[in-house]
Every structure is written in C-alpha cells, then in structure tokens.
Design brief:
287 residues, alpha+beta, Arc Repressor Mutant, subunit A
Length: 287
C-alpha cells in the first residue's frame, strides 16, 4: 500500500486553511506544576523550532501540496510501513519517509522531540541519542500525532493535551508492539534469550515492553519480570552481537537531514540566492 502521493479520499487529514501556516504537536516537556505537557513552542524555548522553520522556508517559499496522508489507525500505519520495504525497525527514520512522505530530522540538542507541518510539509524532529529504543518510541509517538491529526496552529491553545499525549503513546505502543504479536508469545514460559530477541526485533526498551504487558494484563513469570527489569542494553548485549548493537546505537546518534532539503540549500547557495548559514547549521559545520 502506497500511502503518500495518493488521490485525496474520504477520511484523509484536512489541509491547513492557510497554506503558510505552521502547525505543531510536541509533548516532551512535562510540567510538574500543572501535571500536563508543554508543547515545543511553550517549553523553555529550544531555538531548534525556529531554526527548522527558517531552514525550510528559505528554500521552500511556496507552500507544498501536502502528502496525501490518510487519517490512519495503527493497523494501517503498520501495513504501510511493511509495504514500503519490509522490516521497518533497522532504519525507522528512512521507513517513515518512504511510507508516508514525512521528513525526518535527527539533530543534537533538540530540547524535546516534536512533529510539525511547515507550509504543507509534515516533519518529525528528534534528538540524537545512542538509545535507539527511546528514539524509536519518539518517532512512533510523533507519527501518531501526525496521522491522528493532532497538529494545531503554532501558539494556539490545545485542549486535553494529556488525552492527546496518551493517545499518541497508545499509537506508538501498538505500532511497535502489536497486541496480536504479543498474544502469540507465552510470557509465562519465555526465556531471556527470546525476550532479548523480541526487544531487539521490535526496537523497544525492556521498560516499554514491561509496561505494555502490564497494560494488557498479560500474565508473566517471575523470570520474565526479572528479565524485563534489566536495562535494555544489558539484556540485548547478552544475546545480540556487539557490532550490531554498536551500529544501531551509532545510527540513532548520528545527524540526519533529508537529502532534498540539503540539495535545495546547496543549489540556493551556489546560485547566490542564499547565504550558507542554514546549510552549515543543517550539516553541523563547526560542531
């Protein structure tokens, strides 16, 4: 199933009424006073958001025709990812771009992962981290925001943010750890090696898996409970080749910028239409 670039159909995400509008969803700053979540534009303002917007608008001054993203439930999103190239976990970021036409940027010091739409272009921004399991969860969460239609105009009040965040977490949990797949495992008899294989294959953390099993009220043995109490890296290092672990950690900790965005900046700089400031920032020149 090819999801992006399709003919508009009933049930698809509505386009922004203003094609130049910035729409945003971002959880990842928890306010301990209100016990709710601050959006990326409400948090103690990472400059990342402004820099990303500037980098896009400098080379894409004309609004894009948004990818034809249907308002997908998790099963549809899972099918789209598999149809775009099979196992999507080894390079989750590339799979998101291929399946949905969503740009994915991975950069240092993001200050809170977020999803946004700039002039019709859907984008996910995540921070560099060797903790691939954390990054996978964040990507799945932000994908949930986009496909659920949670993006709202920048600065606009968001109703029931806690409900929205829980729904995006539920989306991520089902996408990465489908209930049907969990039902085919006997968590009472499973051995640590098989648990490590599941964690590695689904790209999740031991903590996320333990929480998922608890939320689904799956019975687990004392051995399974003890195994899932281990840090993710400790468990997988006992059963997965060190080189494979190192490669996955290095990938999730490496800057990633969509090639089309870089090419557009390179062309604009070469033609003298634009200074090199944003290009250098995108490529991490000077650090």
């Amino acid at each position: 199933m090819t999801v992006h670039r399709r003919t508009l159909a009933a049930g698809q995400l509505p386009a922004s009424p203003d094609p130049f509008l910035i729409r945003l969803a971002g959880r990842h700053s928890y306010d301990r006073v209100s016990h709710g979540y601050l959006r990326a534009d409400e948090a103690d303002g990472p400059p990342m958001l402004d820099a990303v917007v500037r980098a896009y608008r400098e080379v894409y001054p004309v609004p894009a025709i948004p990818p034809d993203l249907p308002r997908l439930e998790v099963a549809g999103a899972f099918a789209a990812l598999w149809d775009s190239g099979g196992d999507f976990i080894p390079d989750f970021a590339a799979s998101i771009e291929s399946a949905f036409g969503i740009d994915l940027l991975r950069m240092p010091a993001v200050g809170g992962d977020f999803a946004l739409e700039i002039s019709g272009r859907p984008i996910i921004v995540v921070g560099e981290t060797p903790n691939w399991f954390f990054q996978n969860w964040s990507i799945a969460h932000e994908l949930g925001h986009i496909l659920r239609g949670d993006l709202a105009e920048l600065g606009a009040p968001v109703a029931s943010s806690r409900t929205i965040e829980r729904a995006a977490n539920a989306f991520a949990a089902e996408l990465l750890m489908p209930r049907l797949g969990l039902d085919h495992v006997d968590w009472d008899l499973i051995q640590p090696g098989s648990i490590a294989e599941y964690v590695w294959g689904t790209g999740v953390s031991t903590k996320a898996l333990a929480s998922r099993l608890a939320s689904l009220k799956r019975p687990v043995s004392p051995l399974t409970r003890k195994t899932l109490a281990l840090p993710t890296k400790t468990l997988v290092s006992q059963f997965v080749e060190a080189d494979a672990i190192a490669a996955r950690a290095a990938q999730s900790a490496t800057r990633r910028i969509p090639s089309d965005l870089v090419d557009a900046h390179l062309a604009a700089v070469a033609e003298g239409k634009l200074g090199s400031g944003s290009l250098e920032w995108l490529l991490g020149a000077g650090g």
